[in-house]
Write a structure and sequence with these properties.
The complex is a heterodimer. Chain A is of the alpha/beta class. Chain A is built from seven helices and ten strands. Chain A has two domains: 168 residues, Rossmann fold (3-Layer(aba) Sandwich), CATH 3.40.50; 68 residues, no CATH class. In chain A, the strands form two sheets. Chain A has a six-stranded mixed sheet, with helices on both faces. A four-stranded antiparallel sheet of chain A has the order 2-1-4-5. The chains are: A alpha/beta, B mainly alpha. At the A-B interface, strand 6, helix 2 and helix 4 of A face helix 9 and helix 10 of B.
Chain lengths: 249, 277
């Protein structure tokens, strides 16, 4: 089994006034496998977002290292994409031009840019909204555009930080199904942070369970359920239960 | 139906009461120097092209004032916007300059008058260019450096402050989501920071223009000034023409309000992407 990302004893300590400090993430080791769908669940403050930001290169670890295909991750690059919870589209750009943004950073010629952007708009079903601006779209459509934007630069890994956290329950279920369809079509490595255990079990091959004070990984579970999954499956319920138990609910 | 009519008329109620109060008071005072009649002022306003007390027409004076304000204001914008962006983006520049700027910010523009006169006297772009005759001379000689500087000071700080603020208030998620798409530092600056701070900068420019315009009267009271609405007011005062004083005040108010509205219109056009929030 090859690993795309290896987290080797990485931890994050934030300094806090008067020489104190807060441990956001205790030293953690974790491997992300090629093409898997990995979720990270845990309560607020368990360091799951910090772990994701370390993988993206947006934070440097205070200890240990993050390796991407054998090379240390020291800063963000187009190779590891990240989708935020909301409002990450540039509000002054139309949806089409938002999706072209990353391609501009790659200095792609205008025609190829347009072609690739349109292709990804189609992929997420937003073709007819290409000229709309972010404030004119619903939360679900904005997230679809954000996903298309991240995929357009063709990263090796797609990190997602509670991407459906700001959506209503109905839209959320729809988006989960769409994301899975996308993932099956594109076969990309996905690391998905959520605080919904149900969402994690529904989507993932493996679930990383985290605890807080200090933020740390307490368990990594396989989800052996066949796809397409249904929440009626008794194993689905059992797995959800066992994660709840791990988190002491 | 009634509601629409009422809401249409509502903004007119106070002005109508004000004008009625003015007219009543003027009739009772019966003294043109203390308070001229509404009709006297309207008569002056009705003929904006007519020469007044040997100073040329109202419109010509408003034009001269506008040219002066634009001269000082454009200098202020040209300096304050880049400086503000630099200070907002680059922390060492902020540390280097901010406390220095904080000392100058509270000084009222008018307080610079004596220094400005000592430095610039009545020199103008015309005297620097050694022009002594012709229409260009007449125009340029009206743009005294001393006045431009006072207007400059008035416009400078609002634009500087809002440019700094604009850059600093760019949401982190916009920067980070661009970084993970592979943006370089220059990309971030050009494609995220600049457009994102634009609304703040525009607001600062509008406020700065308002302040610059307000500095006009004090700037035009400086020696060497023979024209402009500000000078028109002070001159009309010395010859006891209160109706022209009030006309000048109205012209300043209306011009200022029109510039502000025009600016707001541009802002709304350019910032359509902000939605209605």
């Amino acid at each position: 089994m090859t690993h795309v990302l290896s987290i080797e004893g990485a931890g994050k300590v934030f300094p806090q006034g008067r020489g104190g400090s807060v441990t956001a993430l205790a030293q953690t080791s974790l491997d992300v496998r090629e093409n898997e769908f990995l979720s990270i669940v845990g309560p607020s403050g368990c360091g799951k977002s910090t772990l994701l930001r370390l993988m993206a290169g947006l934070e440097r670890p205070s200890a240990g290292s993050i390796n991407f295909r054998g090379q240390a991750v020291t800063r963000p690059s187009g190779r590891i994409g990240l989708v935020f919870q909301d409002y990450s589209l540039l509000p002054w750009r139309s949806i089409l031009h938002n999706i072209e943004l990353g391609l501009e950073f790659q200095n792609l010629a205008a025609r190829q840019r347009r072609q690739r952007a349109v292709e990804h708009l189609d992929l997420v079903g937003l073709a007819q909204f290409k000229d709309a601006y972010p404030h004119q779209l619903s939360g679900g459509m904005r997230q679809r555009a954000a996903i298309a934007r991240a995929l357009a630069v063709e990263p090796d890994v797609l990190l997602m930080d509670e991407p459906f956290g700001a959506l209503d329950a109905h839209t959320r279920l729809l988006m989960q199904r769409e994301l899975l369809a996308l993932w099956e079509k594109r076969r990309k490595t996905v690391v998905f942070v959520t605080h919904s255990i149900d969402e994690a079990v529904y989507l993932s091959d493996r679930v990383v369970v985290m605890e807080k004070d200090p933020g740390r990984v307490i368990e990594v579970l396989d989800v052996p359920l066949p796809r397409p999954r249904t929440r009626k499956d008794p194993d689905f319920g059992r797995l959800t239960e066992s994660i709840l138990e791990l988190l002491k609910y | 139906m009634f509601n629409r009519l009422a809401s249409l008329l509502l903004p007119l109620v106070i002005p109508a009461l004000f004008l009625w109060g003015w007219e009543t008071a003027a009739a009772r005072a019966a003294n043109d120097i203390i308070l001229p009649r509404l009709t006297d002022v309207l008569a002056v306003l009705a003929q904006p092209m007519q020469p007044l007390i040997g100073m040329g027409s109202l419109l010509a004076n408003v034009g001269i004032s506008l040219a002066r304000v634009l001269f000082g204001y454009l200098l202020a914008v040209a300096l304050a916007v880049p400086l503000g962006i630099l200070m907002g983006y680059f922390a060492p520049a902020h540390r280097l300059l901010n406390s220095f700027m904080a000392l100058f910010r509270p000084i009222p523009p008018l307080a610079w008058t004596p220094l400005m006169l000592a430095w610039f006297g009545i020199s103008s772009p015309a005297s620097s260019l050694d022009l002594e005759i012709g229409p260009a001379y007449i125009f340029l000689n009206n743009l005294k450096f001393s006045m431009a500087f006072i207007i400059f000071i008035g416009g400078f700080f609002p634009v500087l402050t809002s440019s700094i603020q604009g850059v600093r208030s760019v949401r982190r998620v916009l920067v980070e989501s661009s970084l993970v798409l592979g943006a370089s530092r220059l990309d971030i600056f050009r494609k995220v920071i600049l457009p994102a701070s634009w609304p703040h900068i525009l607001t600062g420019m509008r406020i700065g223009l308002g302040v610059a315009w307000m500095c006009l009267v004090s700037a035009e009271m400086l020696p060497g000034s023979m024209s402009g609405v500000g000078y028109l007011i002070t001159h009309a005062y010395t010859v006891a023409r209160t109706d022209i004083v009030i006309t000048g005040m109205i012209a300043i108010g209306v011009t200022g309000a029109l510039m502000d509205q025009a600016f707001r219109l541009c802002e709304r056009r350019m910032l359509f992407w902000r939605g209605r929030s």
